[in-house]
Amino acid sequence: MAADPPTRKRIAETRSVRMVDVARAAGVSSITVSRALNSPDKLSPATLRKVRTAIDRLRYVPNLTAGSLASNRSHTIAVIVPTISNSIFSETIDGLARALAPHGYQLLLGQTQYRLEEEAALVQAFLGRRVDGLVLTGVRHARGVRSSVMRAATPVVETWDLRDRPINMLAGFSNVAAGRTAARYLLDRGYRSLAFIGGEDDRSAKRLQGFRDQALAGGAGAVATALLPSASNPAEAGQALSRIFASGRPRAIFCSNDMLAAGVLFECARLRIGVPGELAIMGFADLPIAASVEPRLTSIQVRATGMGMLAGQMLLGELRGEPPRERVVDLGYAVVERAST
Amino acid sequence: MAADPPTRKRIAETRSVRMVDVARAAGVSSITVSRALNSPDKLSPATLRKVRTAIDRLRYVPNLTAGSLASNRSHTIAVIVPTISNSIFSETIDGLARALAPHGYQLLLGQTQYRLEEEAALVQAFLGRRVDGLVLTGVRHARGVRSSVMRAATPVVETWDLRDRPINMLAGFSNVAAGRTAARYLLDRGYRSLAFIGGEDDRSAKRLQGFRDQALAGGAGAVATALLPSASNPAEAGQALSRIFASGRPRAIFCSNDMLAAGVLFECARLRIGVPGELAIMGFADLPIAASVEPRLTSIQVRATGMGMLAGQMLLGELRGEPPRERVVDLGYAVVERAST
DNA sequence: TTGTATGCGTTATCAG
DNA sequence: CTGATAACGCATACAA
User: Fold this and answer.
1) Which residue from A108, B6, B89, B159 has the least number of CB within 10 angstroms?
2) Which domains does chain B have, with CATH numbers?
3) How far apart are CA B134 and CA B169, in angstroms?
4) Of B80, B90, B285, B86, which Cα lies nearest the Cα of B175?
5) Residue B328 — φ and ψ, nearest 5°?
6) Closest-approach residue (CA) in chain B for A168
7) What is the pLDDT at residue A16?
8) A199 forms bridges with which residues in the sheet?
């Protein structure tokens, strides 16, 4: 009893029920118990019943650690994200979890707080745990990550960005192209002076790059820019707006995350700035909140959940030994036009 | 090389580098390598250097699965939440991860989708993995959960609610009392007809219960109520508001989550309903968005992150063998008054 | 400070 | 369909 130290001690000293104990109770060998658990169809119904009865009676809980060591399969997938607090990533994790759960795979979670060295340390730790697969965020990694993963021959899926030669597999989209599309969309609607609010991370930087390139190409001037450390706090985005206003009044603003866009929208409400009349706002990711605020936010939809599910399916396929049809899947993105632009 | 099937096969057939290999290369025994990894201060500087050189040269990655089996310590904590998509829970997970990371513990994540049987299955799976600790959401569990956990003598912390006799430890607050406080707060400000929008889960139900009890005791009539399956989608909250309006116009509404409160606020903007002039809105959890919307939301702050951190500290203490000072910690809650009421 | 012997609980292999 | 035996790779206990 965990709540009761003396009792607990007694139990801890009692050796826990093992497979052989079940085997003895059922009058079979321990390998038969193993099969009852892992491939029940290989046993006769009678034996199976005996074993299951013994398992229930002894309340046997198989030690999966021992199983992992023996079989060299941990039935564990690790996912590494910058932070779980940014809902774009929790959506991806949710999708991944949903894809894996029916197959009995468990999820190990690691957060880098947007620091590459942290990612490298996590990868090392997860490889030590002999995870069966790895899901990474982004395509830029600390040196050593790529080679460690490849040496371990662990299947990996990179997400949330695109490139030609992934470590192993990739399910993502082009952030640069998405940024370009945002600029083109705004330019097409006649907005000439543009601004950008986003995070400091690699992917946000790429969206900015695409946005800026297209703005220049389209004849708009320089893009007023504010970069935030946290990347998803709406209040900070509101403050960033003031900083941008300090050096001029853009006609439209693109935010690299809907939470930031929402923060900008709320700040406009406080400042009595009409949206989209005086300032058009465009978000990114198409989170639930984008469709809920007033006016509803135009956004770029990126299928965060789908990315997680696809990553899961790619890993499962690889683990089953099926060669994947495509190692790089570009899930694309789509402009969702609403009232804010 | 994961990207290259033939090579991969070759590597898979090559036996991976083990501790003995490092030991041989360094001219020591394997236990010395083990100590270099786990208790380096017990080795002479010279030996330590030799071993580390060998580790680097051979690119040795310790097999933590084998270590877990031998030491009966997995350095793994499992956390089970209804869903990671609800940011109140991702905050708690974040706090937990932050508390554990410096101590080398990894996090296993399980989602129940608000289903108790799912929780029971996850607990079973995690106990099989011999996690060193378990963090559960809420105090209501499927039958068998309590006894399984106690039999395994695995430290466990329940969160997000309160009760006298936890399975083992608890870091939470009283949802019933929080609901009462919300009602009292609104009644004190003269709002007489009250409404509630929340989820269908146990904790939301308790907030409603407290809210309703206090409303009755305070002389307000029946509480118009809408229960949502998803518990955190702002658009659904907006629709729920219409349903409530169908049977009358409350003067104030309490939402069991700030995301829902925000959705109600946005719907009011669309319907041109003044907040708080015509309808006062009160949220729950004090998420970042509460302080960002216009008008800013009055909310009940519950320290979601702190709950996770405390849960982590309680587990770490227990794992170090320190008897906890308190098995039940009530983290309380606080009304954060803003412009929406 | 370092080493030896042994066990952790399961699954793979091969045999029957 | 069932079983005997040998790994799996590391840590603990004890010894030197």
Assistant:
1) B6
2) 5-62 (1.10.260.40), 72-173+304-331 (3.40.50.2300), 175-302 (3.40.50.2300)
3) 10
4) B285
5) -120, 115
6) B3
7) 86
8) A228
DSSP B184-197: HHHHHTT--SEEEE
Pairing of strands B106-111, A106-111: antiparallel
Tokens representing B71 are: 């030491």
* Identity at A104, one-letter amino acid code: G
Number of Cα atoms under 13 Å in the Cβ half of residue A10: 7
Q: What per-residue confidence (pLDDT) applies to B1?
A: 29
State the pLDDT confidence band at B106, using cuts at 50, 70 and 90: very high
Is B266 close to A64, i.e. CB distance below 8 A?
A: no
Closest by CA to B73, choosing from B112, B134, B131, is B131
Q: Is the CB of A11 under 7 A from strand C?
A: no
**Do the Cβ atoms of B133 and B154 come closer than 8 Å?**
yes
Q: Output the distance from B17 CA to D10 C1' rounded to whole Å.
A: 13
Please tell me the distance from the alpha carbon of residue B79 to that of residue B85, in angstroms, as a whole number.
14
Closest alpha carbon to B83 in A106, A95, A86: A95
Residues with CB under 7 A from strand D: A 28-32, 35, 42-44, 46-48, 66, 69-70, 72; B 15-16, 18-20, 30-31, 34, 37-38, 62-63, 66-67, 69-71, 73
* Residues shown for chain B: 341
Whether CB of A269 is under 7 Å from strand C: the answer is no
Instruction: Let me know: does B130 contact B68? Beta carbons within 8 Å.
Output: yes
- B224-243 residues near strand C (Cβ < 7 Å): none
Is 70 exceeded by the pLDDT of residue A12? no
Tally A–B CB contacts below 8 A: 180
Burial class (CB in 10 A: 0-12, 13-18, 19+), A299: buried
Summarize pLDDT for A219-277 with one digit per residue, the tens: 998 999 999 988 899 999 999 999 999 999 999 999 999 999 999 999 999 999 999 99
In 3D space, the residue among B255, B135, B43, B2 whose CA is nearest the CA of residue A158 turns out to be: B2
Half-sphere exposure of B318 (CA within 13 A, CB side): 26
- Measure the CA–CA gap between B50 and B28, rounded to whole angstroms: 9
Query: What value, to the nearest 5°, has the Cα angle with vertex A313 and ends A309 and A319?
Result: 145
